[in-house]
Predict the structure.
Amino acid sequence: MKTHTTKGANIMRPVSQLKEMLPGNRTCTTSTWTAAAIPTASPGPQIPQMASIIGVADTLDAMTTNRPYQNAMDLDYALGRIKALAGSKFDETIVIALESAVKGPANSA
């Protein structure tokens, strides 16, 4: 589990269409918006935007799909949990974009 981002980056590296995602993949789970919980993590705006996007998307996926350790959560419930962490764990702009992508621009507020 501790090396999955590095291993994922190594798998992606030969695929030219995925090269711009590599910095985000390597840091998506080691950075939080405030980085207070992880001493080696980057705070806020120093986090590559791609890492923020991947981190939010990965969190939504983890919450809304069945896992061996938990059942899938309802999409609205998962979005609510993610929105509650906007500005602390997640970049608020990315969370707003996620909600817009999931619900459509007319329904996000």
